[in-house]
Amino acid sequence: MLVAPVGPADVYSAALGGIYGYASAGRLPCVAGHDGVGLVARVGPGVKGALAEGDLVQPAAPLMGTWRAAAVWRAKALTRVGSLGARWRDAAGGGGAAAAAICRDAAGAAGAANGGAGGKVRGEIKGDDSTSTSRLGGGVDVLLPLEYLAVSRELLAAYRLLEMHDLKPGDCVILNAPNSTVGRAVLQLARLLKLRTLALLRPPAASPPPPPVNDSQGGVGPARQQGAATDTGDAGGRDEARWRQVAERLVALGATHVLRDEGAIQAQLGPLKHFARPSLALDAVGGASAARMADALCDGGTLVVYGCLGGAAPALDWKAYVFRGLTLKGFNARAWAAAHPSRAARALASISRLVAAGLLSLEFTEYEFKPEWRDAAEHAAGEQQGGPRGGSRALMMMPGLAAFRGHGGAEP
Fold first, then answer.
1. What would the DSSP string read from start to end of 217-269?
2. Where are the coiled-coil regions (predicted)?
């Protein structure tokens, strides 16, 4: 393994003993970790060309245990996402840090060759069938920097959540968990598509009800003025100031308005004159938050459930389906990619061009696997609870294999 992202899903799995329809309870002890990027160092005699030494791969299923330095897996359990070519031994010995440098060089070279994606933004997200690869000398072939490959499932989720609906410029999308990896990607993609977004951000405890943070005046306008009067001398004031800082960052990413994920959303929409109700809601929390978004949808709107960070099923009223014609859908990016590999590959190529052009960006915090894995897990738990490090994705960088170090690529 080269790198393993640590997110709320990993924490959630550990707390509940299995998600995604799989049960890890009863198979303990087990290795944690759903996602990551690995490097093929050896192939068995029966693989027959499906994978080769130097290929970059990702687990095709959850709960495969990516928090480890090395593993033996069946070829059909892996998805190829690139190759380090002749430089793979450098990455095998140097681990995640060495692989990241190689991938960064390759992705940068591809971005320069493609000339950016600024003129094709809508095509990139709404069905452009073209593909591209990033090549350096020695057969290095990657689409994205290593850290983006590590979270490519979430990037595909954000892409597909918008692509699969018939949205046009000016339409409104409402979403919760906006500071998650998927949420931040959705906000940036929606801005490129000229969609309006309502981001429901979990409020601090015992918070007052000031107006929403918005970009109607080229920034956060009236919300910033309210925040200036906040008493930051106590814990409540600090929490409120932190909430506003996060809200302002979300506006900078593309959120039209940031609302508090509490009470009735319609009441918060009241002061926003001439603001049409959203036609699409993206739920990653469940419980009352999902019900809140469903209540805010226009008649005939669609609620898509793609996660359940709150641990409770969406509390939806049957009357919303009967009398308002709402539609409820579920979405799983991993299952979609497995069922549509060619479409997923094209989507990932489009994402890579947006990243190369600087139109889609994420923040990462790297941890060394052996000495800092607890810190990475605490980071992810804090992200789930809306902590101060929310918005930056924790990555565990693997150490590489000693057999490949300092011997000029000698056999282990």
1. TSS-HHHHHHHHT--TTSHHHHHHHHHHHHHHHHHHHT-SEEEESSS-HHHHH
2. none
The HSE-up count of residue 84 (CA atoms within 13 Å, CB side) is: 28
- What end-to-end distance do the CA atoms of the chain give, in Å? 16
Q: What residues are paired with 192 via a beta bridge?
A: none
CA-CA distance, 55 to 38, in Å (whole number)? 8
DSSP-derived letter for residue 20 is T
For residue range 202-247, list pLDDT tens digits in order: 988 654 455 566 665 433 433 343 344 444 456 667 888 889 999 9
How much is the pLDDT for 128?
55
Instruction: Tokens for 380, please give them.
Output: 């992810």
In the chain, the percentage of residues whose pLDDT exceeds 90 is 55
Of 3.40.50.300, 3.40.50.720, 3.40.50.1000, 3.90.230.10, the CATH number of 165-330 is 3.40.50.720
**Domain assignments of the chain as residue spans, ordered by start:** 3-153+335-404, 165-330
Q: What is the DSSP-derived secondary structure letter of residue 387?
A: -
Single pTM value for the model = 0.86
